[in-house]
Design a protein that fits this description.
Layout: H1 3-21, E1 24-28, E2 35-39, H2 40-53, H3 64-81
Antiparallel strand pairs: 1-2
């Protein structure tokens, strides 16, 4: 490991420690190609608010396989049309 890599690693560790000490986090911004720093409590409130303000339903079973099958069938039908 070069001196530059060690220095970068040390800086990353310092940033991680500072974030942990202040109960903060780095997250991708909603818009644009940027990041934001948020306190974890603020982030949790935003997520809970988003979930409660939108109509989400809890599924009793894992619907992933059914959705994957439907998508696969649709793609197969489209490929038959285009050939």
């Amino acid at each position: 490991m070069t001196y530059k890599q060690r220095k970068e690693d040390r800086i990353v560790k310092q940033i991680e420690n500072k974030l942990n000490e202040n109960k903060a986090m780095v997250s991708k911004a909603d818009k644009g190609n940027s990041t934001v720093n948020l306190y974890q409590d603020e982030y949790n409130q935003k997520v809970e608010g988003f979930i409660s303000n939108n109509s989400f339903a809890t599924a009793n079973t894992d619907i992933t396989k059914n959705l994957q099958r439907e998508i696969r069938n649709t793609v197969n039908e489209l490929s038959k049309i285009n050939t």
